[in-house]
């Protein structure tokens, strides 16, 4: 069965609410509760290129094969060594020694999930693909959804990242470097747009700017003559809108502003109680701040308008997002009351069923109206830009409007940018010296290893390079210090700790470090592929001696 | 394969790990015995217990085996369900229904030559102190608060200051969605699991009157179906959360109620989620937390680097955010603190109300407590005769039963320890 038909069956299984879930939905139940069927479908149509079959690489793949990534290709010509067989769970001990490592790994990884396709390419490596195959090799690489490179030899990595960076349509490149207890993860991408960011933030109920039906309904309540039961079931939203409206009449149209006024406002609410234990009035009092917190376009979204407008070379996959953002900007600047479209999701509140269902209906109806206004504006924007009217489907628009308060647009940076940015290095040496220490130690290891490999190659002895690579503390120190601009130094302890650990275990792919990276990187890949949740922005450095992670 | 098994430590097998074990790093304790000494201990002597062979357990077992632990024991009382297969990577479709501990142990021994994994398919409470005493370290990958409290209290109780080996470091991990935490507990020395109970998220509990009279959310309808309707319709049959037919009945019942009240959003998946209290779980988060736990086990067993002091939490929803800190011991912790918990109550409070207060407190979390003073039993949940005999006390004021500054001992059958309260009355 292809990934495509499987994702369809998943969709029909979760939408047909009358029946028990099918086998596949049951298998993926615990993750569907996080990224839903849309995220699952994205994962199932992804094809990953992985440039090594190290313990770290197979750990990453394990955590992507299990949730059902569509396909992966392992590109690695390494023949399994006794040390590989000792630290990689996706090799079978001595039985795998002498066999192509990628082939063994693919076979054992595929045992985890029948729905996943895996391929191994063992007769060449990435450098050969990029150098010997020319343009067709480069295009082949760019055809993947995402590329993962663990401890890739420096020259190959630099060449790969240059080629991918040169084309804004390139897939993301996830770079992982590790040695012993130290590691770092970086994602190179041009632009990443997130609608469903899962950021924990509740949309405004617009109590300070009530829409007509809400205002009318709130003003119509005859609190005096309600019986005690109904009085205790008036939703707090109605109470607040009503009290605020009356307050504004006697305060030149302004909400409470001074501490004394706010206190007075709250006591007005509590004085309305008919009984001392009416929880709806207590809720109203505790939510009273909503009356003087003006509903405006959140600052994150305002800056999104600016960054989206200034984005050039938009890759095809973020184009719809930019158009949606443009339409949102037009919406918020032209449609009163100049806020984001109303959200239809209402928090639970003390109310009778009837009252709650009614207020839910008020919000839902209004949100549909506002969404339709937004859709009209969007159609105009699409037309103005000469785009296909069907470029954006309804499901995407619904999700965009629903998440309009938590949208995110990330602008990526090229791998290695920090090493060339003197100001950034100077600043990071002060503010994130431990993280920078790890980055420098891993950079020093990687450039010394490249020199070492070159020396070995000229000696025509390619076997056992890794085992022979044992840089001294002095070499590593010199190499790392050369990256820092003149006059910039790290606190000695932070520098020595990182360099010392790198010198101790220059080529160690420790099972625990590999497993931890396997988890961290798989989370990031899932976030990039599903376009849900927010991926790391920068270098994520990891120290497993003191057990911390930190972004550089 | 036979040749491999007999000489399982082939040359080069531990090339990666030996880089760590052959020499100290800048932050390694001077007591570290680099070289053969530490390798012999790790590979020849160390005995480690893994509690839980589920999402974290599978990962923990694989990591420990690759790291060089050769004598691993694992306890789990569960059998394999299809919903485990998206992350519990030692299990396959054909294993559904089999005991997790046994299948996991067999898989590890087949994949990693020379490692012995001894499974126990059962409850941790089946084992006594003598059993737990044989291990150097315990790692927990559990989803149950109750089981964690039990093993934590058991290991704290086992500590004999005269016998250093009686202190068993406990490494505990937990995950939920993209978030998780790992911690190191040195029983009696650092903060223990019980010390940090108040850090747990409070479970949402819907008031019965809302469920019965004013449902507003789909969850209210589902709770109505499971808490009120099921016992009414099936008086003699216990609800089986794992039986799809039972969930189906709840779903349809909840859906009918939702339609009656015009409430939207009752689905099969939500019904199952609410009834089973399902926590989202993915392979990657389990991998992170299990690796952090095993890395601490490795560092403790080898002294090759300092270990975590004492709490690491990670949130992967918005970038990678983590926080490493020292959680502090609580002096009035009923397990490791030794001091009674001061409780100031109104002299009007009845014993029943006091019990209710206790069950609601986040730092106590006790479900069916029994209470006594040094001289009399106040209320006992069991056996039935004593429950009946002490029931009349429930309506009495605590102030009639306990003198000011009097001590009350609280126990519960699910917990292997008691809590001491010192009661004061607000005037």
UniProtKB/TrEMBL annotation, chain A:
Protein keywords: Ubl conjugation pathway
Gene Ontology CC: one annotated term: cytoplasm
Pathway participation: Protein modification; protein neddylation
InterPro entries the UniProt entry points to: APP-BP1 (IPR030667), ThiF/MoeB/HesA (IPR045886), ThiF_NAD_FAD-bd (IPR000594), Ubiquitin-activating_enz (IPR035985)
Domain THIF-type NAD/FAD binding fold intervals: 28-148
Keyword Methyltransferase: no
A single GO molecular function term of this UniProt record: NEDD8 activating enzyme activity
Keyword Transcription regulation: no
Stretch list, region Disordered: 1-25
A biological-process GO annotation: protein neddylation
Top-level taxon of the source organism: Eukaryota
Biased composition (Polar residues): 1-20
Family annotation (Pfam families): ThiF
Protein family membership: Belongs to the ubiquitin-activating E1 family. ULA1 subfamily.
Function: Regulatory subunit of the dimeric UBA3-ULA1 E1 enzyme.
Protein name: NEDD8-activating enzyme E1 regulatory subunit
From TrEMBL, chain B:
UniProt-listed InterPro entries: E2-binding, ThiF/MoeB/HesA, ThiF_NAD_FAD-bd, Ub_act_enz_dom_a_sf, Uba3_N, Ubiquitin-activating_enz, UBQ-activ_enz_E1_Cys_AS
Transmembrane helix in keyword set: no
Top-rank lineage group of the source organism: Eukaryota
Reactions catalysed: ATP + [NEDD8 protein] + [E1 NEDD8-activating enzyme]-L-cysteine = AMP + diphosphate + [E1 NEDD8-activating enzyme]-S-[NEDD8 protein]-yl-L-cysteine
Residues of the active site: 209 (glycyl thioester intermediate)
EC number(s) given by UniProt: 6.2.1.64
Gene Ontology CC, one term: cytoplasm
CDD domains cross-referenced by the UniProt entry: Uba3_RUB
GO biological process: protein neddylation
A Gene Ontology molecular function term of the record: NEDD8 activating enzyme activity
Residues of the E2 binding domain: 343-426
Keyword entries, A-Z: ATP-binding, Ligase, Nucleotide-binding, Ubl conjugation pathway
Pfam family, one: ThiF
Pathway listed: Protein modification; protein neddylation
Function: Catalytic subunit of the dimeric E1 enzyme, which activates NEDD8.
Similarity comment text for this entry: Belongs to the ubiquitin-activating E1 family. UBA3 subfamily.
Protein's UniProt name: NEDD8-activating enzyme E1 catalytic subunit
